Amino acid sequence: MTQPVAAQFDASALNVAKFGGTSVADFTAMQNCAKIVLNNPATRVVVVSAAAGVTNLLVELAHKAMTRDEINAVVDKIKQIELNILHALANPSAVEPKLNELFEQLEELAHHEEILHRPDLKDAILSLGERMSSLMFAEVLNQHGGKAENFDARNVLVTDNTFGEAVPQIATIAARCDKLLQPAMAQAIQVTQGFIGADEQGNTTTLGRGGSDYTAALLAEALNAQTYEIWTDVTGVYTTDPRITAAARPLAELSFEEAAEMATFGAKVLHPATMVPAVRKNIRVFVGSSKEPDKGGTWIARDCAHEPHYRAITRRKDQVMVTVKTPKMLYAPGFLQQVFGIIASHNLSVDLVTTSEIAVSMTIDNPPNSVRSKINQETLSELREICEVKVEEGFDLVTVVGNNMHSEAGVSSRIFNALREHNLRMICYGANPHNISFLVNASDSDNVVKALHRDLFES
Ligand code: ADP
Ligand code: ASP
Ligand code: MG
């Protein structure tokens, strides 16, 4: 006799599962995910991204000036991706009316006269990808014999109102999860949206690109989950991005610190903030491929069996180097404070810093579609009021992540030896023993990563 689902659910062994864009790209991909969810009775909360490609199309609608026909063409592309999933469902009528409502919102926002100028409207339109995929995935689960419901993440994922890069309110999220999500997940598997939230007034917000990893980690934290699974298109976290070199290989284990460094320094497989909630609540994180779940993956935990000197190499693109220079600096102790004050007032964060007697160089993240970390004319003119400013673009940041990198003889010399033929613009030991970073020309960064990988992992 099968037990009712609620009776099987053991709150002391909760797993939160997150599926990325390629994992929910179409009906076939969604079927793989359904099997993964239903194989593990501990999975009661599922977080999904938008189907692959949909968020990029929504970003176009939110950021690019287009003619009416061009807008309609982009809207149609999105609809087609969703309709292909809908038409593959055994019982499309279960979700069709709701999907049509979302299509109406999509058209209205896409043609809204202020869409290019209002950050709140941008977030409203960006949220639609996750809202559509989660609607459909809940139905795929039902079709596979699960008992699943679509849950609106905005009811629990409360953020501030920094549209585009909203900051989650941890205590409020925990309280709302207790009240709304806990009881719901005792009744049915809850399929919710990654990436989106709402401010206290109920306006839709987003957490920044790739933010679904972060959403699921926040929910795992709020619900006191034991494990958090990230199902993506690679069989775990690799020694480096397998798109850079085919020699990259999956890692069986990673420590929280190593994973947090990798996420911060550009390993796209983990959103930069993913590890923060997991570390706070000591939640073990698994990364694996939804296409090949049997191949296993990477377990990220507080303690590892081995702590090698070199664990992985990451790359973060779109870095700018800003050099501020003034002869006055020699005598003015408040100068640096002023410079960093201006940088901070524009919400920019600095990664590497080098100083000389009269100049300071620093690197700043400058990705194209980001809201916060973008150096702009306003920042530069404020800096120019107090010093000479030089901005150089076209750099990538390459980081070697590992353990005890500063303290043991030979560890960094092996790295420098691997890079002897490359031009390094800046070198920086991390503030902790887990990383050493290099600023290199973007055109050379593939080769830098390959050279490091060859010497540190392939010999
Ligand atoms: P999802 O849509 O599932 O969130 P992402 O595209 O955001 O997937 O992240 C997975 C991708 O991250 C991989 O396809 C891979 O190219 C890239 N990646 C970068 N660094 C690494 C790494 N060290 N290990 C594995 N994948 C990495
Ligand atoms: N759909 C969002 C993006 O493409 C969030 C995510 O996939 O994590 O950025
Ligand atoms: Mg991602």
Protein architecture, described:
The structure is a single chain. This protein is an alpha/beta fold. The protein folds into two domains: 12-232, Acetylglutamate kinase-like (Carbamate kinase, 3-Layer(aba) Sandwich); 312-458, VC0802-like, CATH 3.30.2130.10. It is 37% helix and 22% strand. It is built from 15 helices and 16 strands. The chain has helices at 5-8, 27-39, 54-63, 68-88, 96-110, 119-126, 128-143, 170-187, 212-222, 256-264, 275-281, 335-345, 377-384, 411-418, 445-457; strands at 15-19, 43-48, 148-151, 189-193, 196-198, 204-206, 227-232, 253-255, 284-289, 297-301, 310-325, 350-355, 359-365, 388-402, 424-429, 435-441. The strands form three sheets. The protein has an eight-stranded mixed sheet with strand order 3-4-2-1-7-9-10-8, with helices on both faces. Helix 3 (54-63) packs antiparallel against helix 4 and helix 8 (170-187) crosses helix 9. It is globular and about 70 Å long. The model is unreliable at 1-7 (pLDDT under 50). Aspartic acid is lined by residues 20-21, 49-50, 55, 129, 194-195, 209-212.
What is the C-alpha radius of gyration, as a whole number of Å? 23 Å
Instruction: Report the principal-axis shape.
Output: globular
Across the major sheet, the strand order is: 3-4-2-1-7-9-10-8
Q: Which ligands occur here?
A: adenosine-5'-diphosphate, aspartic acid, magnesium ion
Question: In the CATH classification, which architecture of the largest domain applies?
Answer: 3-Layer(aba) Sandwich
Largest sheet: 8 strands, mixed
Report the mean per-residue pLDDT as an integer.
93
Q: What structural category characterises the helix and strand content?
A: alpha/beta
Number of domains: 2
Helix proportion of residues, in percent? 25-40%
Which superfamily, in CATH terms, is the homologous superfamily of the largest domain? Acetylglutamate kinase-like
